[in-house]
Amino acid sequence: MLYDIGRSKRAAQAFSLDDVAIMPTRRTRGIETIDLEWRIDAITFDFPLMAAPMDSVMSPATAIAFGRLGGLGVLNLEGLWTRYVNPQPVLDELAAITDAAEATRKLQQIYTEPIKAELIAERLREIRDTGVPVAGSLSPQNTQEFASVIENSGLDFFVVRGTAVSAQHVSNAAEPLDLARFIYDLDVPVIVGGCATYQTALHLMRTGAAGVLVGFGGAATSTNRHVLGIEVPMATAISDVAEARRDYLDESGGRYVHVIADGSMGYSGDVVKALACGADAAMLGTPLARAIEAPGQGWHWGAEAWHEALPRGRRVEVGQVGSLSEVVLGPSHSPDGTMNIVGALRRALASTGYTEVKAFQRIDLIVR
Amino acid sequence: MLYDIGRSKRAAQAFSLDDVAIMPTRRTRGIETIDLEWRIDAITFDFPLMAAPMDSVMSPATAIAFGRLGGLGVLNLEGLWTRYVNPQPVLDELAAITDAAEATRKLQQIYTEPIKAELIAERLREIRDTGVPVAGSLSPQNTQEFASVIENSGLDFFVVRGTAVSAQHVSNAAEPLDLARFIYDLDVPVIVGGCATYQTALHLMRTGAAGVLVGFGGAATSTNRHVLGIEVPMATAISDVAEARRDYLDESGGRYVHVIADGSMGYSGDVVKALACGADAAMLGTPLARAIEAPGQGWHWGAEAWHEALPRGRRVEVGQVGSLSEVVLGPSHSPDGTMNIVGALRRALASTGYTEVKAFQRIDLIVR
Amino acid sequence: MLYDIGRSKRAAQAFSLDDVAIMPTRRTRGIETIDLEWRIDAITFDFPLMAAPMDSVMSPATAIAFGRLGGLGVLNLEGLWTRYVNPQPVLDELAAITDAAEATRKLQQIYTEPIKAELIAERLREIRDTGVPVAGSLSPQNTQEFASVIENSGLDFFVVRGTAVSAQHVSNAAEPLDLARFIYDLDVPVIVGGCATYQTALHLMRTGAAGVLVGFGGAATSTNRHVLGIEVPMATAISDVAEARRDYLDESGGRYVHVIADGSMGYSGDVVKALACGADAAMLGTPLARAIEAPGQGWHWGAEAWHEALPRGRRVEVGQVGSLSEVVLGPSHSPDGTMNIVGALRRALASTGYTEVKAFQRIDLIVR
Amino acid sequence: MLYDIGRSKRAAQAFSLDDVAIMPTRRTRGIETIDLEWRIDAITFDFPLMAAPMDSVMSPATAIAFGRLGGLGVLNLEGLWTRYVNPQPVLDELAAITDAAEATRKLQQIYTEPIKAELIAERLREIRDTGVPVAGSLSPQNTQEFASVIENSGLDFFVVRGTAVSAQHVSNAAEPLDLARFIYDLDVPVIVGGCATYQTALHLMRTGAAGVLVGFGGAATSTNRHVLGIEVPMATAISDVAEARRDYLDESGGRYVHVIADGSMGYSGDVVKALACGADAAMLGTPLARAIEAPGQGWHWGAEAWHEALPRGRRVEVGQVGSLSEVVLGPSHSPDGTMNIVGALRRALASTGYTEVKAFQRIDLIVR
């Protein structure tokens, strides 16, 4: 439906995950009949969840732990772990700050330390040595510079992740990243985003990416809405990108590009809704930042928070609810959607009569 | 009206009871002209209210008291009263806990005590001996196991109640409950639910049930929305199920299956709206949990709250507003819809010119 | 626009005054060009405002004061001033109670004192003696009983005011008030309400009333929404009743029945919107209860609050903002719409280019 | 879309800036490619921002400072700086008052001091002497009286600013300002407003104005909604006035009248949205009142706040977030849209693939 915003503008309504919900259907299933396996490229995961490459969520240790639980952890390759030989004192100092303004200034300061190629290689080696799938991320701005170290680090997946990533970046100052060429040259499957619209997603799919991230920065920590006026209601964005997946599948003669919801999913119910909107998998920040092992120690922030001249994100207090294992696989002792996320996915499919995510993507939604 | 949730999803708007209201009509009536009698199967009640089989609401004593006031009390046959010979100390301990997290863990612990068939029989006998109508409930999972004790306990109504009950439950692990067969075999009228859609309701009606419950767990205590992303806006759900009642009436050549709204009615005005949406009766949790006699002692919780791995409900503080008799029949000393629920029903019909619930189901609603 | 509330109900959207607003137009006027005079029956008032017959607002003294300021004060003839020879101690006791529950019980108690015909006569005489227009109100239930004292008290207007008043009241217990017959017999112009729909209003206009009240109890103090599920969004109700005025004007060959918005107008901006929706005048409760002279002493309540078995209103604290004269005519020292209500009406018409209420009723609204 | 507000009224929905948002597009640009220059009449500014002529925002000193940063500061020529030789003690006294009611009375008192023509001339000379562009404002009521001092003060722009300014003001009491004649006679480009609708804007454009202000008083401080029921949702208003600009461009054979959003933009994201709705520039109050140099010292108020009989605005506490230079040009240390407003504009255009404001006016909006 289009609304008239005065005489010279029309606008479509966009829906957040909170605007929609799922209703029970006429069928129910036993929980034991549900299969959550997620296969992307050559690897099959126990459940369709990635851990977001955010310094409050992923360290080499938590990436390994998340992999062992059955998901795909992604290390931020331009974060504290590749800027500092030992980032722990920096993380501790940050966690000790409670004032929001002071935290922003501290973030702006600690991220001025340069990224080191050798630390990228070392952190990835640490993960690879444990045998879990290895994934790391860079922003488009840094991807070119560290391409060779990425090439040689035995990654299973490389993630190009920025607030808004387009296949058509125009720049005067430098040679912009040619995504299609980069992906063609790289011998590792690439996941790229965030994107928010049908057109952007289609263009990104054409670059050869194995998956696209849907979103615009990590939502709980993002203040893009206040600073830039830009906002991505996720239900609409996921549904749009899922349509691009279908059209590209036809256009490409059968290449299935995975749609991965990234951000705005604070509770397990939000993850369920993201799948119901058409996502194949979800990349989680806030829910995992609540784990006791998370490097943020109860705090959570994204890359927007440390921009030197225009921070567009804030550090938020998310608390600590249980071990990473309890958060992901349960058992839960908290009825608020913060624990046993995989169990909740399983239960949601069972309660609505579906056995697998692919079919669940077709479930009817309601507008609340 | 259908909304576009992006390019690949359309969704209908669903309305909660809070989204709608009743406007006065051109006629008013004297309060003495109103008849609230509710006849289901062989029994006629003074008013169309059932008490929810929740441990914070119904004990044998409150079931008896509610029956004496003129309604139908339903005892939870898999709750504390059939797990413990004397549940009072357990209830007292629970009431003494104020911390939410501690309460969840306590609930998870106390409900691990097994259900005892002999206690089911004993509790039902206690109610039956007083001469009030006798009703008890089990979840679909436990119905088979205790079928024979149910059979032999002289019940007036048996209630099969789960979060989502379907006539088409699919399971690998065990022989699922065949509702139609079970109801055919049982010599007691069965009320079954919750259900939330036209199709599910129609299927449940075809099993031979005397009534269907509309809802998805007790709403005030439920966190299904956060944990599972599933939500049942009640105005829409009741209206849908009322349509199923009409269509099934035709299909069956005249069998009238009662539509009983279950949950999401915290105040008397909500009960009025539920009837206006098409319900024949309402099953009350929160309003009765506020009675001084209620076993919850000012606290209220549902079956979702005690799941061992994925609790999807919380214990909520509802307070104590007056005696059960004042809550149901008045007089009220509180102008907030928590007391004299039957008087409020009567007054609502009088103010809008109706003498009975059946006609009142046709009143116009507005969207607020 | 009609919404589907599930398969068996459709509902129109109804708008409150808060849902709508006025936008400036292409014309502005000097404040001195505005004429707010309101002529109803034989009397012309300086501005189109009545004071609500509520005990927290109107005493004989404030009715006189309001009349002297240029409006029409209406005394509640079944309130404390006609139950007690000297109600001041009762009012003082009530004002000293701060607890809400205690206040409700006190209200239920003090209004059990019977109404006295001789006090009705005496209070009205007191007002008449000052030369201001005299008006009093009774509920439909009490109108018959005190008809003769009304007849002989030299009233300029008699107001029949109940929560919901219809021309078609059906009752078993007693001979209901025949409004048309009563109005025909009475030698005083009658204003009657509340009503909320086109049909009810049209029926009330046919009884011969000089004006109809639009509303459903005093909104700020009313809890009908919680207790009964009944709610009257005022913008829609006024617009509906204004249409009835037009249709009745045609049907009757020229009888103009005044549409008087009653309640839900807490601030001067709400009064402006009520006129913009089609009202000829407004009856004010809350705004006048804020006057230092108001008998409520900073508290406000309506007749629903003292029902012995089912109170449907609460006493609310409205505070005291200035003298009655400042509240009505200014000057204002508070930029929140609580003072200089007449000045605000004048300014609103000037800012939007209108000189009188009748034309202002045609101004365009927006939905916010 | 038109809504039925009952049977006799229809109303269009109007949208605030908060109701809408911008989504990323398929293109992104480097921040260095963005050009924010704003050319109006003979002057080119570095960015399309004006400072609002409010006493809490603009003193001669801050007008100069804002001009030096690259924008257009506008001094209120009927404010404290032209009433008092030294307003500093008055500002200090006001800042020391924390009680809202006391602040309103103080404002009513201090603005009774008459405006002095010689102070107008002196304040403008002070600004002119620094070489920055000079602009001052009067309300329509005072414009005539001080026309000659305006004429002779070497202004680059004169602003006629009132709550609602129309080209068709009707008055009995005095000869109203003939805007078209005044503008024709004055040898200085005139910016005039606020206006809120297509028609009013078109009429104002026909008076020969160089720019029109869109708005209805400074929104953060305004209480017109409560006092008068009048409200201007800005997204709709800007879009309407932008359409008037297009139609007048055609009608006039090429005269481009600038559309300047005035008020309701508390954060940089709101400014971005205003441009996206069709504005050429924005006049800022609240954001600049947060600068340490602002005369309000952390408080903010508009002209409506000091009306002697009907104040329609309140003094609000906005706090102090950084220097004027940091607020306008950064760097920002606060991720909430209060700092580096120009940087945020630049970033918003870059993130959505636009290089200049004129093209950005065509970007698609969504309704949130």
From TrEMBL, chains A, B, C, D:
Signal peptide: none
Organism field: Brooklawnia propionicigenes
InterPro entries named in the record: Aldolase_TIM (IPR013785), IMP_DH (IPR005990), IMP_DH-rel2 (IPR005992), IMP_DH_GMPRt (IPR001093)
Domain IMP dehydrogenase/GMP reductase: 15-298
GO MF, one annotated term: IMP dehydrogenase activity
GO biological process terms, semicolon-separated: GTP biosynthetic process
Protein name: GuaB3 family IMP dehydrogenase-related protein
Keywords: NAD, Oxidoreductase
Family: Belongs to the IMPDH/GMPR family.
